[in-house]
Amino acid sequence: MTQLIHELIIETARRTPLAPALSCQGLQLDYAALAAALGGAAVALLALGLERGERVAVYLEKREETVIAMFGAAAAGAVFVPVNPLLKPEQVAYILADCNVRILVTSRERLRQLHGVLAGCPDLNTVVLAGTPEFPAVPVPGIRCIDWGDSLGIAAAHTQESPHESWHESQPGSRPEAHRVIDSDMAAILYTSGSTGKPKGVVLSHRNLVAGALSVSGYLGNHAQDRILCLLPLSFDYGLSQLTTVFASGACAVLMNHLLVRDIIETVEQESITGLAAVPPLWIQLSQLSWPLSCTLRYITNSGGAMQRSTIDKLRAALPRTQIYLMYGLTEAFRSTFLAPEQLARRPDSIGKAIPNAEVMVLRNDGTPCAADEPGELVHRGALVAMGYWNDAGKTSERFKPLPPRQPGLPLPELAVWSGDTVRRDSEGFLYFIGREDDMIKTSGYRVSPGEIEDVAYGSGLVGEAAAFGVPHPMLGQAIALLATSAPGQALQADALLAACKAALPGYMVPAWVDIRSDALPRNPNGKIDRKSLAAELSRVFAGGAA
């Protein structure tokens, strides 16, 4: 039985070596080639002196070297740290320093961008450079730069004129042994932005990743003939889940770095894609385009926020033979719940029930279970609960806490992840998201979920995107501010949207301030609406007396 994340690839290579595993920009690797490549990467990393549990960061767009470096690091007994390619140099340097990265895999172009910040990463001793060897690399004082080389079987051999040491030349004559790890050892660190402060590194074990892959691929019904389009950043748990789900089922991952939404539909058609995952802002755009009648999509999934009913209706009309899965997850537990497609028409606002091999509870502040339809905090227990936040005992103890004793004879407590999300469970066991504790608006003595206001805005048919916030107010505590963009073909006016809110909401939930934006609302690196930057913007505006 597979217990380590890289073994998902190796086991499939043993069963079906010639099955397609990875496709990127015309290059396709079968499972035998991918397994050999990650084995070569593991040997190379070990030859560079990588110790057990040390961190290997991968700062590349989605390409074959990205996947091979990540899973090769795991095979070596190290920990991979995928870094979002959209991050700026200072943000990358923070991650490299925070988790004491030893080896960085990146491109020559990206190394040039990082050149001025790597001095602040004292543990970094080696940079492995992927990409075209003819692009000159800028030397970094005190850091060894090594070309990816041809030893992985994926890159062209270096010419003798190359001024940099080739990766395969750094290997000794005998193959070093991989460090022994077990399923409870670290496998990856994913950095996630919080509502305040610097991003936190969520530490995931091999067990977390394998259990998540088997659970998700099971309820999605993935099989070896599936071709999954990987659009989302691999630094995002939902994006990484696409890869692990593929490898758990022996399917093929098609990597894509999309520029235009129209390109996604074309790629789905050209690559005969059967599974597609995206976040709500992207689904809104995709729902507004025409899809071919012969679309091969077997299923689509949504996570990272609620998909609005209007978007669901448009997608169901455009893709009548495609199953839609609504999913909820948090990086600290990888995946948590899903709504089965057959439930979508009846309860489109639900986030479903717990995924296989997980238990999701709704608890009061004192740890006791909530009654049906009583709001409480979503708490996740089981094999997918992460190991905590890297180098942050304080935040770890706030989020990862012992459950109340379930069996009096068990002396050791069980840790669960307390999500910070407020949900309710109906009498049939289906969960409904209400809001994040740190996003809740406290106005006139009421607690208001931004999602309730946004649902009304979307339901009006007037808006393309909407985001509600609480802003300081001397009498109300917080007033409600609503930012929105026009729906396609609409010339939205603030008064019209405000009237729609007044018609559907009680007075205390009606926005005091509505702002219509001509440009799309900003995105964070994972493609979600960047609530953090918008909240900061509004804080500055209202601090100046805009209310």
UniProtKB/TrEMBL annotation:
Molecular function terms from GO: ligase activity, forming carbon-sulfur bonds
InterPro entries in the cross-refs: AcylCoA_ligase_PEP_1, AMP-bd_C, AMP-bd_C_sf, AMP-binding_CS, AMP-dep_synth/lig_dom, ANL_N_sf, ATP-dep_AMP-bd_enzyme
Pfam family, one: AMP-binding_C
Domain AMP-dependent synthetase/ligase: residue ranges: 11-390
Domain AMP-binding enzyme C-terminal: residue ranges: 452-528
Top-level taxon: Bacteria
PANTHER family named among the record's database cross-references: LONG-CHAIN-FATTY-ACID--COA LIGASE (PTHR43767), SURFACTIN SYNTHASE SUBUNIT 1 (PTHR43767:SF10)
Official protein name in the record: AMP-binding enzyme family protein
